[in-house]
Amino acid sequence: MIRAAVLLFLVVLALPAAAAGPKAELWARWQAHDPASAVRVDHGSWGRFLAHYLRVEPQGANRVDYARVTAADHVGLAAYVAEMEAVAVSGLNRREQMAFWINLYNALTVKVILDHWPVSSIRDIDISPGLFSAGPWGKKLAVVEGEKIALDDIEHRILRPIWQDPRIHYAVNCASIGCPDLAPRPFTGDTADRMLTAAAETYVNSPRGARIDSDGRLVVSKIYDWFIDDFGGAEAGVLAHLAQYAGPDLKARLVGRREIDGHAYDWRINAAR
After folding, report:
1. CA distance 121 to 109
2. Core-most of 3, 34, 129, 210, by most CB within 10 Å?
3. Which phi and psi angles does 150 have, rounded to 5°?
4. Which of 47, 59, 69, 46 is nearest to 271 (CA)?
5. Element (H, E) at 218
6. pLDDT score for 1
């Protein structure tokens, strides 16, 4: 009974931390880069996979047709990941590095879904280490330059702390309806900045990003709560960020608002209907 009580206490103690997203904590090993590098990483096979299986939905979340992925294309996706594992990423320039890590993150996410298909939510793929861990984000899924890499490493220890750009949240996809869209084409060093801005505008202006209910309540994605530090550290910063990327209608309705009324997120899998 005492052991059970202690365990219950630890669970309760862990709950507040679980309500927040991971902090951005730099993995210094990945700061190395070559500003003079002209190397361009080929993400063509990832692009072909997206062209075959991503269903773009202008009025909703982009969806992946996981159920129709052939065995050969599943193997091809694994081959793309292996190609990325062989890249000398430390010798790339910063733009190519950003594209590399975003594409690898998204490809690994799709691969882990396929490896466990069918699932109703990515959170059901409970392969992360640790007593209170859930989902696949903490599992080492790839090896780059001899380092074992998890999805959490890519997002929270590489992309967020190195680039310190809140638009990163619109690029990495967690295979959920509530998440910003999986991009229909690979990021590249030449297109990453434009794609990040376009992704921010799309998400902010969708009901998944921000919506004003019929009673006038502003409800925004839980992303802006989990990672509020990346959006200025307070609701005022989130509101300023939303206004920056809002279209005319949403921007007008945000004028004068000083607080957010609620947060929402849909963890259902982003599978094709």
Report:
1. 12
2. 210
3. -110, 165
4. 69
5. strand 218-221
6. 39
